[in-house]
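Weekly structure sync, notes
Attendees: PL, DS, HV (note-taker this week)

Item 1: Amino acid/amide ABC transporter ATP-binding protein 1, HAAT family
DS walked through the input record. Source organism listed as Flexilinea flocculi. Sequence as pasted into the shared doc:
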Amino acid sequence: MTILECKHIYKKFGGITANNDVNISIDEGEMVGLIGPNGSGKTTLFNCISGVYKIDSGEIIFRGNAIQKLPPHRRTPLGIARTFQIVRPFKALTVLENVMIGSLLKSKSPLEAEEKAREIIEFLGMTKYIDYTGAHLTLAYKKRLEIARALATEPYILMLDEAMAGLNAAETKEAVEFVRKINDRGTSIILVEHVMEVVMPLSDRVYVLENGKVISQGLPSEVSKDPLVIEAYLGG
Ligand code: ADP
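Item 1 (cont.): predicted structure, written out as tokens:
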């Protein structure tokens, strides 16, 4: 069943059409990759879905309801969560406190929020850092913390923006494993990554953006052979 459908999304910045008639959909439990060269409109689409940007036209249907007019703080409780390309954990707060910011949203008490936060921290293998402040984590763990905080809002769909950019090979491998674990628990995931080698093995389906338009979509094996995609990555 479709959980999120973006229909004919347009978003302009001055003379630049960052999203130009974008159509994408994601099913319950699916992992979808969104790839494309720098400036192709991936982050803009995330911002449109999460409500950071108001779309110029089009429709965003989430679990059967049009949400494009809702502000971001009304979308998160519905079950849409995201991370940002530039990590921004609360540096003075501990890992536990950071994750509780997420889990408080759907908890009846601070105690319940803390229990949920501890469970997610354990699930993502961060228990030994639970009392560290955000400022004292490596980039890989800062990124993992942001994912933990997003997951703590109990989303149906998790949007990860460059969750693996800047990580070394070992850190990337670990990140791939826990992203798969999150998906295995049933959360739908949209993965924006610049690096094709990361997205292709993880994704059930892939969309490729170029200049604000979807130029290719389908199974990773099909998309990676598409001449338009090869051109977009190697031609520019
Ligand atoms: P990607 O995430 O694929 O690298 P973006 O969505 O960040 O691409 O950008 C798509 C285009 O929109 C780029 O040309 C970028 O410069 C432009 N853009 C994105 N956000 C803004 C903004 N807030 N103001 C002006 N232009 C923007």
